[in-house]
Each structure stands twice: as C-alpha cells, then as structure tokens.
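Lab notebook, bench 4. Still working through the backlog of constructs that have no structural model yet. Next entry is a single chain of 722 residues. Request: give me the structure tokens for it.
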Amino acid sequence: MAGTWWFPKPQVGNTHPGATAPFGMVSACAYSGAYPTGYGLYTKNTEGVPETMFERVQASGFTHFQQSGTGAIRKYYNYVRVTPMVQPLDELGQSWPLHDEEASPGYYAATLGTGIRSEITVGEKVAVHRYTFPAHSSARVVIDLSCGGLATELGRTVPLRAQIESMGHGRAQGTVVMEGVPLSVYAEVDSPGWRQMLWYDRRLIDGGTRLDFDSIRPTNLRPFGLLFMGSARAGQTIEVRLGFSLRGNDQARANLVRECGSDRPAFTAVRAKTRATWREHLGKVQVEGGTPARRTVLSTALYHALIKPCFADDESPFWPDSGPYAFDVCTMWDIYKTQIPLLSALVPDRAADLLESLIRVCEEEGNFPIGYRMARGADRFFRQASALAHTALADAHALGTSRIDWAWALVHMVDDLRRMYGEDFYEHGVVHPITHTLDLAIGYHCTARVARALNDHRLAADLEERSKGWVNAFDPDSGLLRNSEFYEGGKWNYSFRLLHDMRARIGLAGGDARFIKKLDRFFGFGAETVKQPGRRPPAAEMAAGYALKRFEGLNNEPDMEAPWAYHYAGRPDRTAEIVHSALTWQFGTGPGGLPGNDDSGGLSSWYVWASLGLFPVAGQHLFLVNTPAFASATIQVPEGEFHIETSGHRETPIGVDGLDHEPPPLYVQEATLNGKPLPASHLSAADVHRGGRLHLRLGPEPSSWGSGNRPPSLSDPLEDTR
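Model written out:
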C-alpha cells in the first residue's frame, strides 16, 4: 500500500548525529554549513530528492546549538565554532574531509582530514571537546564567535554586538548578541605551554585582552575570536570546556563549574553522566520481540523524540525570574499531536515545564506561540496553525497536573482565542486559511473543558457553542474542507483531521460508508503504484503528484492522525493496515530512514506511539488502540508501568527484507484492560498514565472489535459518552 502514497518532500529526517543531552540546551556537531542543521551535504531543498552542496562529508569546525529535523525555518543557530588546526589562521573557514565518524547518545567524534581526532560530549548547558593532535610545531585551537547560520543563501546569521575577554591563561569569556539574544560563553582550555591570543579579521592581537564590537552589520563584519597555539607531540590531547548561558558570563561560568566539577580533565565524567541520563530516558520504553532493525528504528525514534524542546532552566533572556525556559519548540504544529503526549507520559515534569514556559511567553508577548526559537521577534510560525497550546493544556489539566495555576492559565487560553486569526473566527465563525477554523474550534473545545472543570459553567457553555464552528469549514456537498489556501498540504490532507466531534463530522460526509469510501480513496486502497519525485522535479511533475490527492505517507504534519480517522467510523482494521504499511515501508535504519522532516521529534514520536499500538488524540484526554509492532511492550508512566501484551503476534521484517514474508496477523480480535473485556478501540489517557495491562488478541482477518463502541464525540448522546 505504501507504494500508492506520494511524498513531495525529500524522504530524509533532517536530523544530525551531534552530541546532545535529553532536552539539553546545547548540541554540538561537525559544521559544514549544509541545510538544514549545519551538518552534512545538502543544500536547501523542499521537493524531491535533495541536492548536494559538497562531494564529501566535511567540516570547517564544530558548532553548538543545532536544530533537529526541521524544514525550511528562516533562521538558524550553529554558534561558537571551535576548530582544531595545524594550518595558519588565514585558512580558518576552509573545510576538511571527515573520516571515522562515530556517534552515540551524548557523544560525537570524527577525524579531520588534517589527522586531528575530534571528540565532543555535552551536558545540559556545557560542551567539552577533546582533540588529539598529530606531531606539529604550530598546532592550534581556534574559537570563532563571529559566525552562525548556514552556508546557504540567506542562511547566514550576523551578530549585532559582541564582547570577548581573556581572563588569564586557559580562561576566557564572551557574549555575542545573535537574533536579539545575548549568548554568553565561558571557556577553559587545557593547553600547557601554549600561547593564548585574541584575533580579529584573521590577524592575531598579541598582548590584547579584550575586544568590543557595537552595531555590527553584514557590511562591516569581520571574523573574531580566541586562539590557543603551540607545539604538539603525536597523540597529545587538548581539552576545551565551554559553559553557556543566556544571562551573562558569570552564569555561564557557574554552569561550567556545576556540570564539569573540579576534576580535570572533565571529558570522561561529563560523557558518562550524559550517557547515564540517556540510558535512564531511553529505558522508559522496553519492547520484546521484533526484528533487530525494528528495535533499532524504535530506539532511534525514541532518542530523536527526546532531543527537543531545549530546556534552559533559569536562563530566559526575556524575563528576569527563575524557572523553566523552553526554546526550539519548532514547531507546535508538528509536536502537539505526538511528542507532547509522549513527554507527558515519559517525563511529566518536563512536559509541565514546557507548558509553564509557554504560559510565560504568553504573559510576556501577548499570545501562545505556534513555534518558539532561541530568538527574539514576531516570526513565530503563526501561519501554520492556531490555538495549539490549548490542546496540551487541556490534556495536562485532565491528567491532574498541579504545578500550573489553572485559573491564570484559563485567562490566557480565553484571551489567546481572540488573537491573530481568532478575531475573524470570533466575529464570523469561520476564517481563512480554512484549517485555522478547525484549529480554533478545537481550541474553544479544549478551553471549555478547562473552564467546566474549574466550575465556570457559563464560560464553558459559551466556549463550547463556539467550538461547533468547525462545521463552517466543510463543504456539505463534497464532505471535504472548503476551498482555501493550505499550509504544506491540500484539501484532502487536512479533511481527515481528528476533531472533537467526529460523529457529526462523519455525518456531514454522508455517514460511515461514504466517509470510509473517501478515506479509502485518500489512502490508495486498490490504486496503482505512483512515481515519486526525483532530483529537481519539474513543476508539472509536482502538480501531477498533488493532483492525486493522496496520503503523503507521513511526509508532512497533516498526515499524522489521518489513519486513525477509521476508528471513528468503526473500522480500526483499516487503521491497522495503513499503520503497519507505514511502519514497515516508511522507516529504516540507513540514510533516508525517515519519510519526511523529523520536525523536532514529532515524526519520531509518531513512530514510537504507532509501534506501541497507541495514538494520543491531542486535547481529548484519549488514546486510540491499534495493533502493536512488537509482541509486548512496557512503558514507564507517571504512576507505574503500562504493559501492552499480544497473543497471536508474528514478526515481520521492515523494508525490502519483508518482501517474501506473509503479513502478520494485523487485526485485533478482542482486548482486555487489567483483565476486563475492552470492547472499545480507545482508552482514556488516565488509563494509560496510571499504569495497567492491555492485552490484545490478534488474528489474520478483521473482526467486529471496535466497530460499535466508537471513540467519544461531542455530539454523542449523554449515556454513550465515555
């Protein structure tokens, strides 16, 4: 079936292999300037097979603060480039081939073409580099604070102001204002006998101890930074320790001392601590069975799901108070459906931190962001969607999250519904782009749930009435969304979103049979295999692909929840077929092993949930149940462990290895929850979070399980509501 799907975007994840800590502020990786993270070979590309910028994997140094899995975001990081060299400073910026790359959680290493072995590990707010030099009379480590961004058109980031100060042998500090944010770094370099100097425009400033720059412009920018230089014997190692802060040099130094301790060198200890933290986080999901490739993809997906958002506690550059500060929420449009529910289940404290941070952003800036980078400005991805934070807040309240001042949160939720596109929705009950009508209607429903739980029944009734405006987005004749503009998708992609009133939505489409017929057409049941875009696809080829009006195979955000629409029409067997096809054919262990942008872990989180046989319905306090990809699984949840067991399961390899294998028993025949029959194809989120045991008996043919007891909808008769 996957062969009938059509994907406009390159089938790569846009991730990087750099060193990160779970949700850490810092990431560190080899820097080539390539799209989109700064690592790799690709130039900017959003359609077809990606084009390359270089003939080889290469690097001009190692930078910090990478995004993960994003697409065409306008601004980029890659600040503070560290380059080990055996060449003159004049050659800073040239790239050398990378050999013998190695990556594991919290660690990245490669050998530059110059023969220098380069290793990097990170903590939450620190990075530690270890360079092993060949014998050379003039080896050096160069820290460049002037660069950022990508080596692509409009990809460069130019600092506004900067200050660097030498603090004595092996110690220095600096602050660079990038994209409106003051990024401070405190550096310690173990280089006995080496000279330490500032440099500007690739010229050494012998004896200088401080550089100050004001009003930097692209026209007057010249590179600047620090240099450590001396003779190296073969195999000599130099350690570079960097502490970062968004609140000044003193806090950067405090972060370095706290995470690196007093022992020198610190590389091994920092690496071991981060590795242990990763082991703890990745251990929260355990599976039995599955082929080695499936287990590898699952582990990789879980890893990618826990990289972002970045948390820089007590580091907000925009408000003075202590507390959580989250950035690289890039973007809520991608993560609210899958990743935030995953964080709520596995790391509930961090999920609460994220929501607290978003509420604070709303206080300071006047609205909940749709995306939030480590950058000042109004570029918050508002065109993608509206009112997405409301879904996560409603779920958190239903789960009993107590750290949030819910009366205060409700004030912001209500006010935010009237901002941006919300003003037109409030006045007219519909807004274009038409997908924002759906967003806002769901946002009203989620806000009504919180208001009702806080006993503001009058407000709840008004909000719920306005939440029915989703119907204005649909054409009753076609059963699809009205013609409009669509962000990265089309009318068909968006028409099968999971709404808060799927009973009425299916009725609008003409009932179960007609709704299922449209879904079958969208997912390519019985269709011919389609040709995928190649390199530089012409406009006519792309137009023909879009004209298929076909599922994009998880290539884009609107696809994530569409397979589960069948649950609401009583056909969970169809969901099982589509999800199995996606898990088997859309993900792999090699390069290009993701069907689209990973989008800060949103796509990888989809894979984790789908492999477990669950799918969270954002804002509805609900999980849909489906056939798992493993014989059994255990999730560590806030109140214990949730076990998913199967009987009748059979392994299936992924990709081409599975061509000669019969499909496994895909269909749930019956289910039990904690030993009691479960006739419904859904669970409340509380059922999962409190722990328990879900058993699914599988078979080779569809059954009646889940056909009658549908997931809840707003217009359900009161006695049927779960």
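Notes after review: Residues 616 and 623 are 4 Å apart (CA to CA). The chain is about 25% helix and 25% strand. Flag for follow-up if needed.
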